[in-house]
Amino acid sequence: MKKKLGLKKKLKHKSWLVTILCLMYSSIIVLLLYITLISSFKSGTEIVTDIFSLPKSLDFSHYIEVLTESNFLRAMGNSIFITGVSIVGLLIVSSMLAYGYARYEFKGKGFLQTFILLGMMFPIQLGVLINFRVINAMHLVNTPWGLILIYIGNLSLASFLFMRFFAKLPESLAESAKIDGANEFTIFARIMMPLSKPIFGTVALTSGLTIYNDFYMPLIFLSGDQRTATVVLQNNLSAFLFNIEQIFPMVVISVIPVIILYIFCQKQLIEGLTAGAEKT
């Protein structure tokens, strides 16, 4: 009994510690967001003299300059297009791969799982030379489609999440549909996919944020008008003092798609992350 009470006290102390750390981290994030937002309406002098104070007036001229006089709006369009198409392709390919893995027994199944797990251990940047040679042979360098193919091919994490989810779905669902005359594609499209909305949202959000925020791969494969928002923003940061009034509006604008994606996928994200903790 004493051991149980001692264990409960330790768990309680740990939970308090985790709560305090989370509050500290959240406070830092909120503070940074506050500074970024208010600085986007300030002049360069106001930003340098007092970064924490509110702007004297809401001046939208910096936003207008960013949207009309720079190529940042085009770069934002490139980022959104590449991210959106990559997410759709990644969801289709990884979900079908994971469904086949969970439903069938075949030679090399263990190797496939090991291969996917190994893919999660190594970042995509390690294969940049091989990827560049392949994309260059396909004449897709400096086009969004070459980068999209690379992101879709980086499906280890997405496939692993789908595998874990499909493995927990009861076989009776597929068997009942087969008795009614449904083929495998119908079972996957009309039964498994609707049941998999939580994991679809989880993969879309996690992979989408990674792709949207990626800097290294677009820097290597894209140039000129094809560049993404992260590359353009980094180029402006290299001359921070000269572009200080435009940088903060760029950051605010670039965060908007992330917030929209999170709003649409937050429910599925929570359900997908907690699905493995539920007892079946």
Structure, briefly:
The chain has 280 residues and is an all-alpha fold.
Tell me about this structure:
It is a single chain. With 280 residues, this protein is mainly alpha-helical. Helix content is 76%, strand content 0%. It is built from 14 helices and no strands. It has helices at residues 2-39, 44-49, 61-68, 72-103, 109-121, 128-137, 144-153, 156-167, 171-179, 184-195, 197-213, 216-221, 229-237, 244-274. It is globular, with a radius of gyration of 23 Å. The chain starts with a helix and ends in a 6-residue tail after the last helix. This is Carbohydrate ABC transporter permease. Belongs to the binding-protein-dependent transport system permease family. The chain crosses the membrane at residues 16-37, 80-102, 114-135, 147-167, 187-212, 247-265.
Write the layout of secondary structure elements.
Elements: H1 2-39, H2 44-49, H3 61-68, H4 72-103, H5 109-121, H6 128-137, H7 144-153, H8 156-167, H9 171-179, H10 184-195, H11 197-213, H12 216-221, H13 229-237, H14 244-274
Helix pairs in contact: 3-14, 4-7, 4-8, 4-11, 4-13, 5-8, 8-11, 11-14, 13-14
Short descriptors:
single chain, 76% helix, 280 residues, transport, mainly alpha, transmembrane
The number of helices is 14
Could you tell me the strand content as a percent range?
under 5%
Shape: globular
- Radius of gyration, taken over Cα atoms and rounded to an integer in Å: 23 Å
